[in-house]
């Protein structure tokens, strides 16, 4: 049976909106109630600002170090990290640990974006769009690397910059657009190996769980839930739930929060049932 260690990110990590920190807190608190866990909270909220990665990265150092240490502590305790994070950039503090502890793990990056830009290719200067490339060693974030790009699978990806696409292709990252993001296809790639799951809720069709960036033609909630529910028993090594814009006007926060938890429950129940 899976035992989780719950971590809530509450430090600003390149947040350009105020809703994601509130979303991480709401998600973490709901997970704590569902699992009857006492969470570890990392960081202190600060207002959002539209800054460049050269500013937001050093400003987030303490939070990223804290997330790294919290994940390591959960793993050392023999539990599975479960993170409620504000931005994808928070994974700068987690993915290098995944690469170190589980070098053969498949990282399911369930996201509308590739997050594979570098300082040389980014047009926006947004740190969150550079996370996976940093973890794969294409640029130095100062927080480690080591992730094998051939073990990364972009699930539901559909908004990828041309220069970013070239980097992804050269690195050998698998890209599954929504039409190919099926449980069967994902499981054929996983092939029984350990799995680290990252979900940015912008992978969904807009209107279900609000995220900072709306991208049309996404996956539906039940499609994401089906992918999670069909993963082989005993393979999940960690889960990150990111980018829920709490109190966003396009969807009621209470309904969206219930959908976040219900999606996680599909994974949790399947893993518990199969691992019993």
Automatic annotation (TrEMBL):
CDD domains: Arginase-like_1 (cd09999). The keyword Manganese applies. GO terms for molecular function: arginase activity; manganese ion binding. It comes from the Bacteria. Keywords: Hydrolase, Manganese, Metal-binding. SUPFAM superfamilies: Arginase/deacetylase. InterPro entries: Ureohydrolase, Ureohydrolase_dom_sf. One of its GO terms (cellular component) is cytoplasm. Belongs to the arginase family. This is Arginase family protein. It comes from Pseudoclavibacter chungangensis.
């Amino acid at each position: 049976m899976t035992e989780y260690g719950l971590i809530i990110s509450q430090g600003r990590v390149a947040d350009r909106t105020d809703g994601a920190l509130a979303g991480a807190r709401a998600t973490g608190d709901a997970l704590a109630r569902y699992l009857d866990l006492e969470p570890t909270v990392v960081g202190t909220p600060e207002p959002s600002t539209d800054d460049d990665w050269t500013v937001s990265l050093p400003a987030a150092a303490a939070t990223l170090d804290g997330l790294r240490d919290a994940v390591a502590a959960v793993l050392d305790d023999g539990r599975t990290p479960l993170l409620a994070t504000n931005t994808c950039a928070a994974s700068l503090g987690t993915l290098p640990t995944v690469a170190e502890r589980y070098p053969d793990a498949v990282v399911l990056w369930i996201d509308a974006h590739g997050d594979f830009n570098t300082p040389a290719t980014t047009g926006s200067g947004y740190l969150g769009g550079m996370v996976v490339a940093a973890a794969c060693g294409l640029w130095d974030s100062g927080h480690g690397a080591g992730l094998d790009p051939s073990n990364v699978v972009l699930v539901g990806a559909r908004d990828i910059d041309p220069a970013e696409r070239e980097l992804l292709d050269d690195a050998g990252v698998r890209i599954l657009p929504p039409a190919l993001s099926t449980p069967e296809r994902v499981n054929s790639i996983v092939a029984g190996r350990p799995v680290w799951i990252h979900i940015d809720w912008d992978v969904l069709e807009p209107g279900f769980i609000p995220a900072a960036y709306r991208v049309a033609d996404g996956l539906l909630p039940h499609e994401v839930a089906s992918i999670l529910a069909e993963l082989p028993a005993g393979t999940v090594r960690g889960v990150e739930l990111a980018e829920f814009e709490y109190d966003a006007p396009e969807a009621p926060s209470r309904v969206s929060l219930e959908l976040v938890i219900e999606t996680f429950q599909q994974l949790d129940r399947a893993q518990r049932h199969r691992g019993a």
